Amino acid sequence: MGAPRGLLAGLLLALHISALGSASHEVPVVSAAEGQDVVLDLQGFAWRDDVAEVLWEKEGIPVAQRKGEQVVGWRQAYEVLSHGGLRIRQLFANHSAVYKVLLYDVHGAQVFHAAIRLRVLKKVSKPTISWDCSNATLTCELLRGTDAQLKLCQKQKCYYTDTQALIQYTWANLDAPFKCTARNSVSEEAMEATVHCPVTDHTYTEVPFPGLLPGHPLWKSEIWPQADRARFICLVGGIGGGSLVLAICVGLLILCVSKRRKRRSRRNEEELEMIVHRTTSREGGRGPHPTSSTSLPPPEASGPPLPPAPRRQAPRAQPRLPDLHTQHPQKKRPPPSSMQAPRQRGPPPPRPRVQPEPPRRAAEGATAASSP
């Protein structure tokens, strides 16, 4: 049992000694703002006259050297001062690194060495404050800065944030202004603002409005602000007016179409009546053509009627319908003078009946019987 205990005690002692050694050799950190100059001093060393050479290295690469009064700089941004410090001009983000300094005496022996870590940070910008009265929320925001810390205060109450560039706070009262501060190890900016919000009426006054019954929850002034009600009224009025205009346009369109159809149908009926009238007048004006200029004897004098001789009757020509586009009907040619009957006064004589043409065989038989 004694051997394991001794081994455990030795292990704990070794760990403790290694922790102390690492703490004692911790590299110091120097922070500087971007765009400015910085001087890295020899920390923990008192300058001596026997120091003949000073050498500065960046991540193991020499950047500047001084031997007596002669200064050697491998880069323009670096310069070794008379007391051994290193000046760096116009810092940029790539200057962040671990720098090591080496001191030698006249015999070339090293008398001192040390390391310094340089951090180049961006300056913080001025924070911005905004608020929302409907939610009673205030926002403090930082737009630019490295490793910045935000602090929001109202009277004696303060709120901090370490990593975020935004603070949102819900206020309970607005009796004091708000102050927002942004800072890091190289810069600090602050902004103060007084929040003003319209006072909300909590009396729940009723507002008369057509379309909603009195006492409707939407008319409570706290639930529905005055600006929202005005927008709602404008929206309803616009929708109603647009619907009315649309209905009027549709009605006018229907009326125009119906009038056009009626006018077209009336025109077609008139044209059809004109065609029928012209056709009727032409058919009524044409009469049967007489076959002889002598008048027929009365049936009592001639005796019993003989069968008519076979004769061919010219087919009647069908009247041709006039063209729709013809405005003036063609004039009817007068019959020849030999065919014209003498005019007589009084009512016109009755028209003779046109007997139907007998069959050809019956007509031939009758002709043969009558011939001697």
TrEMBL record:
<feature type="signal peptide">
    <location>
        <begin position="1"/>
        <end position="23"/>
    </location>
</feature>
<keyword id="KW-0472">Membrane</keyword>
<keyword id="KW-0130">Cell adhesion</keyword>
<feature type="region of interest" description="Disordered">
    <location>
        <begin position="263"/>
        <end position="372"/>
    </location>
</feature>
<dbReference type="GO" id="GO:0032729">
    <property type="term" value="P:positive regulation of type II interferon production"/>
</dbReference>
<feature type="domain" description="Immunoglobulin C2-set">
    <location>
        <begin position="129"/>
        <end position="199"/>
    </location>
</feature>
<keyword id="KW-1015">Disulfide bond</keyword>
<keyword id="KW-0812">Transmembrane</keyword>
<feature type="compositionally biased region" description="Pro residues">
    <location>
        <begin position="296"/>
        <end position="310"/>
    </location>
</feature>
<keyword id="KW-1133">Transmembrane helix</keyword>
<dbReference type="InterPro" id="IPR036179">
    <property type="entry name" value="Ig-like_dom_sf"/>
</dbReference>
<dbReference type="GO" id="GO:0005886">
    <property type="term" value="C:plasma membrane"/>
</dbReference>
<dbReference type="GO" id="GO:0005102">
    <property type="term" value="F:signaling receptor binding"/>
</dbReference>
<protein>
    <submittedName>
        <fullName>T-cell surface antigen CD2 isoform X1</fullName>
    </submittedName>
</protein>
<keyword id="KW-0732">Signal</keyword>
<keyword id="KW-1003">Cell membrane</keyword>
<dbReference type="InterPro" id="IPR015631">
    <property type="entry name" value="CD2/SLAM_rcpt"/>
</dbReference>
<dbReference type="Pfam" id="PF05790">
    <property type="entry name" value="C2-set"/>
</dbReference>
<feature type="compositionally biased region" description="Pro residues">
    <location>
        <begin position="345"/>
        <end position="357"/>
    </location>
</feature>
<feature type="compositionally biased region" description="Basic and acidic residues">
    <location>
        <begin position="274"/>
        <end position="286"/>
    </location>
</feature>
<dbReference type="InterPro" id="IPR008424">
    <property type="entry name" value="Ig_C2-set"/>
</dbReference>
<keyword id="KW-0325">Glycoprotein</keyword>
<keyword id="KW-0393">Immunoglobulin domain</keyword>
<dbReference type="InterPro" id="IPR015632">
    <property type="entry name" value="CD2"/>
</dbReference>
<dbReference type="GO" id="GO:0098609">
    <property type="term" value="P:cell-cell adhesion"/>
</dbReference>
<keyword id="KW-0677">Repeat</keyword>
<dbReference type="InterPro" id="IPR013783">
    <property type="entry name" value="Ig-like_fold"/>
</dbReference>
<feature type="transmembrane region" description="Helical">
    <location>
        <begin position="235"/>
        <end position="257"/>
    </location>
</feature>
<feature type="compositionally biased region" description="Low complexity">
    <location>
        <begin position="311"/>
        <end position="321"/>
    </location>
</feature>
